[in-house]
Every structure is written in structure tokens, then in C-alpha cells.
Amino acid sequence: MAARTRLAQDDPNASSSGRPERSEARERLLSTASRLFYREGIRAVGVERILAEAPATRATFYRHFPSKEDLVLAYLRGVDTGTRAGVRAAVEAARSPADALRAIGTAVADNLAAPEFRGCAFLKAAAEYPDPDDPVRQVILEHRTWYATTLTELFAQVFGDSPRRGNPEHAARHFVLIRDGAMSGAHLDGVDSVGDAFRRGVEGLLTPLP
Fold first, then answer.
1. How far is CA 88 from the centre of its chain?
2. pLDDT of 151-175, one tens digit each?
3. Phi, psi of 174, rounded to the nearest 5 degrees
4. List of residues 6+ apart from 145 with CB closer than 8 A
5. Phi, psi torsion values for 131, nearest 5 degrees
6. Helix 168-189 × helix 135-159 angle, to 10°
7. Which of 172, 182, 171, 170 has its CA nearest to residue 119?
8. Closest C-alpha to 1, from 86, 82, 85, 90
9. How confident is residue 208, by pLDDT bands cut at 50, 70 and 90?
10. Cα(103)–Cα(99) distance, rounded to whole angstroms?
């Protein structure tokens, strides 16, 4: 395997006390909430709506999630876990670090065209939770830090020691910036054109300087 970088552990949210209790009811509540939060917004969806669509009783809900915030955190951690798995798969399947970055970029561009796509779950949540000390905001920042760090490590492998290549951290931040823009503007400016522009941007970051 040519592309190698330090990826996050399988479950970055696992604690010394173990994983959260798993049950069919918990997974049904989380799945329902995740769908509604992503599609309609976190604050717009109340507990009663989730209970009605799951369906579940309030007692069942609070047995698994002491508060709505706990459910929101579980939702975002689930998105984080899925994103990490996708990046890990791209890196492991790639022949080189550059191909890994292209694969990560292709996955982002392809996601823009998915019928259920409504933007970046973390950017949407950040707009609803502006307080930097809020636990929800902390999960968002942890995810973005991991993402940027992983990209930085890949770009460092691509650039090597060549003085004609860019700064890996700057390239990673640029990647995140154009990714955020693509996810925010795809449905406003056209999915195809935005996706193509994003792919060109990624390729530009990988192109040697003259």
C-alpha cells in the first residue's frame, strides 16, 4: 500500500467506561434523529417529533439519551465515524498519497450530487451552535482538526522535501476551504459545475509549482 498516514482509531469516542449501550430502540432513535437533524436542522426538530417518528416513549428516549444534547452529540459522532471510515478506505485503497487525496476529493464531489445531500452536517451544526465552549461545538472542532491533520500528513508525503512544492499544512487548509465552499454552494451554483471546480482545485494543490 503506497499511501500511508496516521489515521484515527476506529472509535475516537470510546471511553474507558466502554461503548454506549446498544439496543434496537437506541439505534432507531438515533437513526430517526440523524435523518431529521440533517434534513431540517437540529434546533427545528424537537424530542416529541423524534418520538413520534421513531416511534418510542419518552421513558425509552431518556433511558438512552439523558438530554437532547446527548442525542445531538451522538448524531455528530456518528457522522464523524462515517467520515473517518471513508477517508481510511480511500487511503488504504490508494496507490500513492496523491491518489489518496484525489480519492478523498472525489468522494466529496460525488456526495454533492447525492439526492439526500443537504450540505456538511458539521457546518450546519456549527451555525446553530456558535458558542465555542458548547460541547456540540467541541465535537465539531475535534472533527475538523482530525480532518485537517489527516490531509496535512498526506500532503507532506506528496510534497516530500522538494523546495518547489507547497507547505503541507497550507495545502490541507486550502483543501478544507474549497471543500467547505463546495458543500455550502453546490445547490446554489449547480452541483456539476461546483463539483468540477472542486476537483480542479484539488488537482491544483497536487500540481508542482513551476
1. 13
2. 999 999 999 877 666 799 999 999 9
3. -65, -45
4. none
5. -70, 120
6. 120
7. 182
8. 90
9. low
10. 6
Q: Which amino acid is at 132?
A: P
Least Cα distance to 141 among 127, 155, 126 occurs for 126
Residue 66 neighbours by CB under 8 Å, 6+ apart: none
Query: Rounded to whole angstroms, how far apart are CA atoms 99 and 154?
Result: 10
Cα angle 24-29-31, degrees, rounded to a multiple of 5: 90
pLDDT of residue 14: 43
Quick one: residue 19, left, alpha or beta (phi over 0 = left, psi -120 to 50 = alpha)?
A: beta
* Total-model pTM: 0.87
- pLDDT, one tens digit per residue, over 14-59 is 443 445 557 899 999 999 999 999 999 999 999 999 999 999 999 9
> What distance in Å separates the CA atoms of residue 85 and residue 76, rounded to the nearest whole number?
14
- In terms of phi and psi (left: phi > 0; alpha: psi -120 to 50; beta: otherwise), the region of 158 is alpha
Least confident of 43-47, 142-146, 162-166, 203-207: 162-166
Positive or negative, the Cα torsion across 160, 103, 195, 10? negative
